[in-house]
């Protein structure tokens, strides 16, 4: 009996830390010490040839966290039998998946089945923001990967919503209005397709600067068979640098998307916009805090979910014995 009790105690000591695990900075310090540097190297290689990867990763991270939580469900590929979140309309133009694949391949070669795809997204996004001139912030890790990816679950706040309408989605995730304005500041390195803002040009939206309207009209008029839906930078000042220029631009009626411009006009958000316009350091600080907060939305921890071997597919389920 004493031997059996000792065995059970040892077993509990092994299981309980996993079951009660919480996100923490340096989570992989022992299990995969080079995890963060491996992800950083993958991001740096991509960034040297494609500065727009920062915007792509920011969008991927947001689209992942605001559906089922930050569980990498957005990475799952659709199959002939089942569609995934990638098939949902808002996700059809999400990109950057190959970078996540590269980081995961390198991690699996160094410490197999240790680092989750969800953590790779969070770390890669942080590293890309930093390379673009943004803040470097410490990312708590320890997320697990989800076991569900359903396109019907994708219901994201769209670019044509009002500030109050968009806030409904953020409030549902326990984010504040200040968090929402801060996170939308990521548009300082983003782009939008003409189909998203064309109605503002055609309708001569009075809240849009005339010079910007003419510029965007020229971009969209150049649509062709090879490029049927051109893109325009959301920050007309420093589109590839992570700074507070976006807020200065919308203060001059140079917001490309409706939701961006309304941030500067709506009484619920304009005070925060003014603060970020006047103080770049404040924006950097608040952005780092808001990203960490977003990265904690509905995370899977402990023994929940799984650690995928391939970020694009769920791990094979073990066959049940008959």
Summary keywords:
single chain, 322 residues, mainly alpha, Peroxidase, domain 1, Peroxidase, domain 2, 2 domains, two-stranded antiparallel ribbon, disordered N terminus
Describe it for me?
- By secondary structure, the protein is mainly α.
- It folds into 2 domains: 23-153, Peroxidase, domain 1, CATH 1.10.520; 163-294, Peroxidase, domain 2 (Orthogonal Bundle).
- Helices cover 48% and strands 2% of the residues.
- The chain has 13 helices and 2 strands; from the N terminus they run H-H-H-H-H-H-H-E-H-H-E-H-H-H-H.
- Strands 1-2 form a two-stranded antiparallel sheet.
- Helix 12 (270-278) crosses helix 13.
- The protein is globular and about 65 Å long.
- The model is unreliable at 3-20 (pLDDT under 50).
Q: What's a quick, concise take on this entry?
A:
Ca(2+) 1 binds at residues 64, 67, 69, 71, 73, 85. It is found in: Secreted. The chain has 322 residues and is mainly alpha-helical.
CATH topology of the largest domain: Peroxidase, domain 2
Global morphology: globular
Main sheet characteristics = 2 strands, antiparallel
The domain count comes to: 2
Give the total of beta strands.
2
Distance between the termini: 31 Å
Strand order of the largest sheet: 1-2
Number of helices: 13
Helix vs. strand class? mainly alpha
CATH homology superfamily name of the largest domain: Peroxidase, domain 2
Average pLDDT taken over every residue: 93
Judging by the overall fold, what is the CATH architecture of the largest domain? Answer: Orthogonal Bundle
> Could you give the order of the helices and strands?
HHHHHHHEHHEHHHH
Task: Tell me the Rg in angstroms.
Answer: 21 Å
Helical fraction: 40-55%
CATH hierarchy, class of the largest domain: Mainly Alpha
Strand content: under 5%
**Low-pLDDT regions:** 3-20
